[in-house]
Automatic annotation (TrEMBL):
Leader peptide range in chain numbering: none
UniProt-listed SUPFAM superfamilies: PGBD-like (SSF47090)
Record-linked InterPro entries: Peptidoglycan-bd-like, PGBD-like_sf, PGBDSf
The organism's taxonomic lineage, starting at the top: Bacteria, Bacillati, Cyanobacteriota, Cyanophyceae, Nostocales
Span of domain Peptidoglycan binding-like: 29-85, 101-157
Organism expressing this protein natively: Fischerella thermalis JSC-11
Protein name listed in UniProt: Peptidoglycan-binding domain 1 protein
Length: 162
């Protein structure tokens, strides 16, 4: 089977393995919430009590983690959030390159602005200035300077405090 790529922000479902973990959100409780709290603690994000109760502090920690790994910051622990928690890095993100556009491009532009690699407007358009900023980031992080945001580049970008 051959997959084709476009500059969209979605990945075919066949590339997203399921962990069979429950979806968690504010008000959830039990062993899965305790596991979540332990994972967030290990990532130095959650500092609250590990009690299996998904309250506001847990929700804010989830949102902080989601921001770090480029997931929607909704505080809901779905399959993508579980996968990212287990790997400690972004998962199931598209390759971004010149011509890509959208919210993920804006997030990258904001992050690269904070590192002083990007000097353009945060407009969600992956043009020459964004490509140059990505290349600069890649060179400083010992990655191939392709100007394309691939898995390795996503991983290094996720290490920047946001």
């Amino acid at each position: 089977m051959q997959l084709t790529s476009d500059s969209g922000n979605s990945i075919p479902n066949i590339l997203q393995p399921k962990l069979n973990k429950p979806e968690l959100q504010l008000g959830s409780n039990g062993a899965a919430v305790e596991e979540l709290q332990k994972l967030l603690t290990n990532l130095n994000i959650y500092t609250g009590k590990i009690d299996g109760i998904f309250e506001e502090n847990t929700q804010e920690s989830v949102k902080q983690f989601q921001r770090r790994v480029f997931l929607p910051e909704n505080g809901i622990v779905d399959d993508n959030t579980w996968q990212a928690l287990y790997t400690g890095r972004p998962v199931n993100l598209p390759e971004l390159k010149k011509g890509s556009r959208g919210e993920l491009v804006k997030k990258v532009q904001r992050i690269l602005k904070s590192t002083q690699d990007y000097i353009g407007y945060v407009d969600g358009e992956f043009g020459e200035i964004t490509e140059s900023a990505v290349q600069s980031w890649q060179v400083r992080n010992n990655l191939p300077d392709t100007g394309i945001i691939d898995e390795a580049t996503w991983r290094t970008l996720s290490q920047i405090p946001q």
